[in-house]
Structure formats: C-alpha cells, structure tokens
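Bug #77: duplicate submission created two jobs. Keeping one. Sequence:
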Amino acid sequence: MSNDETTPGPRASRRPDKPRKRRRGLKITLGVVLVLLLATGGTLYWLYSQLDGNIKGVDINKALGEDRPEKLPTSGQNLLVLGSDSRAGAENEELGGGGAVSGARSDTAMVVHIPEGRSKAVAVSIPRDTLVTRPECVKDDGSTVAGKERVMFNSVYAQVGPACVVKTVEKMSGVRVDHYLEINFAGFKDLVDAIGGVTVDVPQDIDDKSSGLHLTAGPQKLDGTQSLAYVRTRHGIGDGSDLGRIGLQQQFLMALLSEVKSQDLLGSPTNSYKIAKSATEALTTDSGLASLTSLAEFARSMNGVDPASMETIMLPVAYDKIDPNRVIAAEPQAGQLWKAIREDATIPEDAKKSPATGG
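Kept job's structure:
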C-alpha cells in the first residue's frame, strides 16, 4: 500500500514482528478512567478548575459537518476513546522504546457505549490492523483527503487526524459518536503511578524481551512503566499479534477502574489533585468536554456505572483472505453488534464471537 493508506506496524497474523520493530500504542481507554475518576471525586471537582488549561480540545462536530449517523432518542451515549503513541517530548520518546519517531499514531480504539439510565456500559475494541474503508475527510489545515478502501484502521489517525477516525468509526458502525477522548503514553504511566499502581491477575508467565516485561503468572501489582508494557506486550502473550493482547488491555482496564473507584479520593484532596493533574496533562477531548467543569458534569451523570458491570468485547474480525496479516470485520457478527449498540439493545451472544482470536 502507498504511504497515504497505511503505516507500518505490528501485524495481525501469527507471525510476531522482529524485536527491532517499533512497539506501538497505548492500549487502555483512559479517557473513561478520567471520567469515572472525576465522578468519584464528585463534590471536589471545583478544586480542579485551575487544571482546565491542561486539557486539549478538538472540534469534532465542525470537522464532520452534517454527514453523520442520526442520533436516536434511546441510543444512550457513545464515546470513542483512543490511546496515542505520540513520541512528542523526551518522556514519550523514552516510553515508546527509544529512537526518534515522528508524528503520532493510535493503536487503540474503543467505542464505549453507555445505555440510557447509565447503570452499565460496554466497551468494543477495534483491532488496529482491521482493514476499513476510510471516508473522505478534511484535515486540520482545511485540505480534503479522498476516501480509500482497504486501509489499516490505525493509519487513519496518523495520516488524517482524530476527526477522520471518528468519521471512519461512524461510517463502519452506523453509531453516532457523542464524545472523543484521547490519552498518550506518558499520561498513562503517570496516572497509574499517581494512584499507587494497579493489581492484575497475570494469566500466564510473560517474558517479553522487546518490552523488557518479565512477570510470573498470578496477582501482580504493576507500576506505571510495567503497566504500559503489560498493555502493549505482543511477544509475551498469545500468537504475538495485536489480537492476542486485547484481552490483557480489557482486563487491565477493569482492574484500573476498580482501583480508582476503591480509593478514598474525597478523603485525600492532595491525592485527588495529583491524579487529576496527571490525567488532564495527557488528555485530548472533543470541544464539548474540553474543560474540567464539562468533564465533571458528564462524570457525575455516570455515577451509577460500576466497573464490575462493564462488558468488554472485541469487534468480531476474521483474517483477510488477500492478506492474512490483516483482519476484516466478520459478518454477520459485526453488523449485529453495531445494530444492538445503535438501538441500545441487548447484544446477541453470537455477535460477541470473533473467528480470529489471536490465541
């Protein structure tokens, strides 16, 4: 493929990349963590007003215009949460595995659906190596980028920007995206360290020389650096593909949300401020959420969402017949999944099964 269609990256096949390949992608939906964190902090959100300037905003609605899926009256709320591997700045470059890498990429995308009533949520992971049709998009400089078929999903962010990722997700799913949240490498590490680490039940021994992650199976408390390696490891789990590590990402998300919810943030304003500072410094949102007040108001409306009740699903995908190193949305499962989310309905069990598992 030409440069405008895809960016090199870890393959979705069972052939692991060579260790020298750049490890890509923050694999956690930390925008959701921030929202729930601020909800937990509830009455203290006014203390954070000085942090407003940390949050970067993107005017998604202006970039997308009117050519979008209809917002149904019972469709709940839908957030597109991206993990960015921008190497901007020395700290991000170091966390990225060394070596200067220009630009920013997004390996992780989760559509988080919060049904009406906001008592539960579901997160749908879109594998980064999924081949999609990229619609015509407008870049930040006002230039138009023509639509293309069979481009790798994570290339859309790198080549065209976040608004085009939102448009691509809306076109492939028919789901109206209400809000956009993005967080980078360093922000992920600092947030985990700020809450004192996260305990996960490691499913098997991990010995990943590429990331430097070495863990034994069983409960392990991970600091920020270890957590970043854990959610990015490919060679240490499954078949060495992006699909194999999605399970780790989803497991870690639940553990992280539970840890945030268990902490007495109301009893420790200093710790609350430290956590909020770490999160806001790395956060980019749509313009509708690009203030601490807006985030806090949205978070308070989600107070009833329990991390224990959040369901995590990988978009059903199959290995591409032309290029087995890539995947495509598996039908009819993917269509059934998106339909259930659009209609705020129960997701059929068959719609949760993926022919390509990465195991």
